[in-house]
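HOLO CASE FILE
Compound: uridine-5'-diphosphate
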Amino acid sequence: MTVLVLGGAGYIGSHAVDMLLSKGYDVAVVDNLVTGHRAAVPAQARFYEGDVRDRGLMERVFTSEKKIEGLMHFCAYSLVGESMEKPAMYFDNNVGGCISILEAMEEFGVKHIVFSSTAATFGIPESSPISEKTPQKPINPYGESKLIMEKMMKWQSEATEMTYVALRYFNVAGAANDGHIGEAHKNETHLIPIILQVAQGKRENITIYGDDYQTSDGTCIRDYIDMEDLIDAHIKALEYLKAGGKSDQFNLGSSHGYSNLEVLDTARQVTGKEIPSVMGLRRPGDPDELVADSTKAKEVLGWQVQHDLTHIIENAWRWHSSHPDLYEK
Ligand code: NAD
Ligand code: UDP
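Model generated. Tokens follow.
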């Protein structure tokens, strides 16, 4: 039986493909490489280059792959700032892609899908940590598009035999344990890879966006989830659905928050580099603190976080220092 990984050439999707293969699953990938890398997908996975909104392509994939037991869906545009400038493009790709996928699943009788949602569906939460009961009030088109996708899945699951799990990731970071794949976004905006680029000497310094937040040291607090822990949750979610589990949503984080300065300190310890920093202004739309309450994922999926921030940065550093040009060479 095959797991079809949509967006399997991207940062998170490529780690899912890698871990599924290592656990003996048969894997096929669809990706249009808009932000992904062909080199991130191992030869053991069958690769279809194209857009999930292309109904003809989806029909060809579902026809060729005769034994799809479930989908993992990672395709999306996912930059908050870009989504504020180009909302229509975000709804077209994220929501449009989801429609095409749900239609193909229905047409070909594929029953299970695990998909990437995000803490951005919560907007600026009134309290922390954030549980599945916290109201979802996105404050940007990216978060809104993911909330719409969650709702589409819910209605589709009520109308058909399909079941889904929406996994709302908090801050994903890290890389494969041996550093052979890792994060390689062309326009990098995330804190940890930018800090490591400074450690590599690719940037002069890291600007920390604001130290006047309502937190212990004034910088924002985020909850970092290790890549291996994250993919483990996807595999557990897929197995849960295959075993007859009902459609559900889970918040995925380590349930532990780190301030931006604590992240920087940990990176200095791991890399042994100075990593110069400057204090900048707030980045618009950043909530003071985003920490997950992942109790439900533990109880229902039997999922347990194994790795802390030091492990995350160690793996990320292994990837960055062994691949100075990322996937370019
Ligand atoms: P990414 O950009 O590296 O991966 C997305 C992949 O999907 C890329 O390979 C891209 O080429 C592909 N893709 C996009 N649109 C497509 C389309 N229409 N057809 C076919 N392929 C398409 O991003 P990522 O960081 O790996 O994120 C994966 C998912 O996780 C996204 O849905 C994102 O919203 C979600 N997410 C990420 C984070 C994070 O911290 N990285 C946090 C929360 C949620
Ligand atoms: N951040 C920062 N400098 C950077 C990039 C990010 O200070 O160059 C901060 C950002 O303001 C936030 C935290 O790091 O407080 C995490 O940001 P990231 O973009 O990695 O993830 P987000 O929480 O926005 O999904």
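CASE NOTES: The first strand starts at residue 2 and ends at 6. The two ends are 34 Å apart (CA to CA).
CLOSED: yes
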